[in-house]
Amino acid sequence: MQLIRNLLITVMSIFPSSYYVKAAGCAELSIGNCHDLAPLLATTTGQHDVLNKVLATPELFKVQILYTQIDRKPDNKVEFIHYQFGLDESRYYYPASTVKLPVSLLALQWLNQHQQPGVNRKTTMFTDSSRPVQTEALADETAENKLPSVAHYIKKILLVSDNDAYNRLYELLGQEYINSQLHDKGLTNTVINHRLSLPLPELEQRHYNPIRFVDEQSKPILSLPARSSETRFVNQASPMLGKAHIANGELVDQPMDFSDKNRFSVADYAGVLQRIFFPQSFSSAQQFDISEQDRLFVIKYMGIAPASVHYPAYDSEEYPDNYAKFLLVGGQDQPAIPSHLRIFNKTGWAYGHAIDGAYIVDTNKNIEFMLMAVIYANENDTLNDDNYQLNEIAKPFMRQLGQLIYQHELQRPRKVVPELTQFKELPE
Q: What region holds the Beta-lactamase class A catalytic domain (predicted)?
């Protein structure tokens, strides 16, 4: 009893009471089997200097963490046990490139549902234009055949977070398909309503390019006309972030309006990862309707290093192993990720936010867990000025958080040791 009392005193001394109380409540979250992560976070040491700094003032950094233990059962079913800190689905953060993961899955689902002979993820996909602000995509010099396809776009998304690749899939699907499908799967705290790195007017984001899937002779197999969405998908809470922002090169001394920006809650992000790696834990209606081959394709490119691929080809100096991996290995001058450690993830970084969600596997130690984290590293609280602390704060925070959870997993007893040999090699 005294040990528990001492631990609680330590937790309360580390975390501000207002934040701790809010973090301790799981009742309002859309996840079950939820517990408080604060006691585990209180076990940090002096080696976790940046993690300790962030956790000392978590509201300043707008921290949200969701750690999911995975317990295997004798019948091979799994139980998810969640531990959260600062998790609040009403607290908006800008999800940046993390939205590319569900859109990639939905693009594969769209192809699977159309059942058009000759059309699959490898089929050439030409994107035309019908409005002045739209651009074409009729070639891809990074592909082996120099032609664009859904498969190649997804590779570029998962390996280096390519924005144009995401935009082409967004234009294929449109807002109504994306948002209705995610909602129907139970992912109800997500709104995807714009391209990335293309600051178009809101109305233009609801207009989609004509698209052609063609055979090897460039003859059309499936053609989509220019399309548009009547429904406007907005963040109903009208989130405002920062104390100031840059607009058209000028400083505006007021918060930035994110009503027409994407939304992707931490719990929904975790739900997407769970549907990829444990689809059997969900009803057929809640799963992504993709083939097993497509699922393994996504898993492969979530887990390998950019420089390990020939098409597209990425230089290891510019794109090291951890280029798009923050948790456990993020930060500068980190060594290559060992082959027994698999980090299947999708990161995002923009407007001072850094986000990572990962399913982490160590095939030597037979451990597996999921970890999601959001941090706002924007010291001057001014948005769009490109003065963020991604390398100084966000990446070291993610690395040290991942290391803390990894060490905990090494010590955690398991009734059933997971069978993880399938992750030693990642065939397409």
A: 84-363
**Class of domain 34-423 as given by CATH:** alpha beta
Contact 169, 224 (CB under 8 A): no
Q: Is 275 left (phi over 0), alpha (psi -120 to 50) or beta?
A: alpha
Cβ 354 vs Cβ 377: under 8 Å: yes
Contacts 24+ apart (CB under 8 A), 42-49: 42/7, 42/10, 42/11, 42/14, 42/15, 43/404, 43/408, 44/400, 44/404, 47/400, 48/400, 48/403, 48/404, 49/400
What residue ranges do the domains of the chain occupy?
Answer: 34-423
Look at the block and give the residue holding tokens 């930060």. Answer: 331
Strands (E), 288-352: 341-350
For the record, the structure tokens of 252 come out as: 């505006």
How many of the other CB atoms lie within 10 Å of CB of 370? 24
306 has a pLDDT exceeding 60: yes
Query: 359 forms bridges with which residues in the sheet?
Result: 344, 370
pLDDT at residue 24, as a whole number: 41
CA 389, CA 395: separation in Å to the nearest integer?
9
State pTM to two decimals.
0.94
pLDDT in tens, 354-395: 999 999 999 999 999 999 999 999 999 999 999 999 999 999
